[in-house]
Amino acid sequence: MRRLIDKLALTHSLTKEEWISLIADRPEQEYLFAKARRAAQTYYGNAVFIRGLIEFTSYCKNNCFYCGIRRDNRKAARYRLGKEEILDCCRQGYGLGFRTFVLQGGEDAYYTDDLFAGLISEIKSSYPDCAVTLSAGEKPKESYRRFFEAGADRYLLRHETADEAHYRILHPAEMSFASRIRCLTDLKEIGFQTGCGFMVGSPGQTPEHLAEDMLFITELKPDMVGIGPFVPHHNTPFAGEAGGTAEQTVYLLALLRLLKPDLLIPATTALGTVDPDGRERGVLAGANVVMPNLSPVGVRKQYALYDNKICTGDEAAECLSCLKGRMERIGYRIVTGRGDPAKEPGGISCTT
Ligand code: SAH
Question: pTM for the full model?
Answer without folding.
Answer: 0.97
